[in-house]
Amino acid sequence: MKRVVILISGRGSNMEALIRAQEAGELPVTIQAVISNQGAAAGLATARAHGIEAVALPHRDFATREAFDAALAQKIDEFSPDLVALAGFLRVLTADFVRRYEGRLINIHPSLLPAFTGLHTHERALEAGAKLHGATVHFVTPELDHGPIIIQAAVPVLADDTPETLGARVLEQEHVIYPRAVRWFAANQLQVRDGIVKVELPGAEQLVVAA
Ligand code: GAR
Description:
The protein is an alpha/beta fold. Helices cover about 35% and strands about 25% of the residues.
């Protein structure tokens, strides 16, 4: 059984989707801990309500990015995870941190990468007149929001969309694709070669989810 640590910064709805999938017997993993860089993150209480150890490690307590990342790595390693899943963890990570967890660090990002890296992705998709938008689960590399793509979900952009309505449509799909990506990782179905993820697909599962 693979051991997972989830990092969050806020609401934690993707974290909750992973927890619920695990509780439903759909994820052959144990979720060892949830760690937040924001003490006030609502997701910490959600994790505790599910009986999962929830740790606040406020980045503001550290003088530098390097010092925070070192403390974060130390805390993560206490749980000896096979996989570290970023679920709305809104911090830029140092290259040293990313390299330490290379191949076992994944992220969910609210756009169809490589489009719209960074923040405010729903606003920017609307401003660009995109007709499709979505979310991506990918392995993390030192370059922000790059890294080998595991799975994507696409949603239509509707004429009357606001960032909020579009974001809600995307989030619904995030909760579908993140547990699926973690399940593939847990079952050793992901292989990365030359920056490309090859997935051994079981049955009728898909690499692209379209709403
Ligand atoms: C999610 O939409 C996630 O994709 C995004 O933050 C939100 C967190 O929501 N992540 C990023 O923007 C990372 N660059 P949640 O806390 O409810 O899962």
